[in-house]
Amino acid sequence: MLHPSQPVCVKQTGVNALLHFLVDGLCICCLYLTAADNVMIFVTYNVLAFLTQPLTGWCADKLTQKHWMLLASVLLLTLGVMLASVLKVHGLFIVPTLLGLGNSLFHVWGGKQMAVRTGNDIRALGVFVSTGAFGLAIGAVFASWFLLYAFLMGICLLAMVAVFLLPERRYTYEDGRQAIWGEWKGFWLIIVLIMLIVAGRSFAGEAFTTGITKSTVILLVLGATSMLGKMAGGWIVKGLGMWKAVLLMVVGAIICFIGKDVHIALMLIGFFLVNCTMPVTLYWANTFLRGQEGLAFGLLAAALIPGYLLAIVDLSTASL
């Protein structure tokens, strides 16, 4: 359950979730407007946005005044949008660099805040991580300069709310940390296993959507399904218990994958169930790395890239 200071937790979760939607939407919108068909622009952005998160997450754990990470993120995103607006030059790598670093700082700040302020509540984790998927869909489908500026304005306003209207540290989840495994260093093997699960989920998510035409409607439906799955995962765990919920998600996803070509509804249900596991793995990582939730979030974010690249390579080979 949420920490006794529940109204604050709910407000924090809402603000962070909206920020997640806007940040991911802004980044993909800006890239679509400036990168054209330059694949390396997107690769640069993804590498910086995801693979730097273990480092930025470690920084989030060390900083006492963590709001500076949010402010730095907003500054980098603003600079990226300004350069894209003024120069409007396709193939300019400084823009994805700024966006990628700003995105990285935001995600670990938000992940750390959610774990600390809600006592690692799996429902709050799911709500926070869910909205980015729909933000990506909206930013990609409706990319325009007007939408880009609207995203940026929303980010600046909500960042001010997060910094000035919400307390910096209402609940210090990491204080008085006690490692549940004592001095046993082998718990890092479990962290690696969780990362492998995340990489596998990334591949599975891509595999579910193989062979379907990514029309505007389908992109929006997939973004909404991904968001609802991540959001629902924590509530399913609270309702059924951890292992019953995980069994439902895994077995259900396998059955749906086998029959995904029969009807699109089975594909969407399976895609939903795959995404339900997102808050589960984040909850596990936070539990094993209590007091280092920023690092935990960053490691799992980095683990998404190998699975994504494996899926892209596999799907490209299959189309030859």
Structural write-up:
The termini are far apart. This protein has helices at 6-34, 39-50, 53-62, 67-87, 94-118, 122-141, 145-165, 187-208, 216-240, 242-258, 264-276, 278-288, 293-318. Helix 4 packs antiparallel against helix 7. With 320 residues, it is an all-alpha fold.
Summarize the structure.
The protein has 320 residues and is mostly helical.
Key structural traits:
disordered C terminus, 320 residues, 79% helix, 13 helices, mainly alpha, globular
Count the DSSP helices: 13
Proportion of helical residues = over 70%
Strand content: under 5%
Low-confidence stretches: 170-179, 314-320
Shape type: globular
Q: How many E-type strands?
A: 0
Cα(first) to Cα(last) distance is 50 Å
Helix/strand order: HHHHHHHHHHHHH
List the helices and strands and how they pair.
Elements: H1 6-34, H2 39-50, H3 53-62, H4 67-87, H5 94-118, H6 122-141, H7 145-165, H8 187-208, H9 216-240, H10 242-258, H11 264-276, H12 278-288, H13 293-318
Helix pairs in contact: 1-4, 1-5, 1-6, 1-7, 2-5, 3-5, 3-13, 4-5, 4-7, 5-6, 5-13, 6-9, 6-12, 8-11, 8-12, 8-13, 9-10, 9-11, 10-11, 12-13
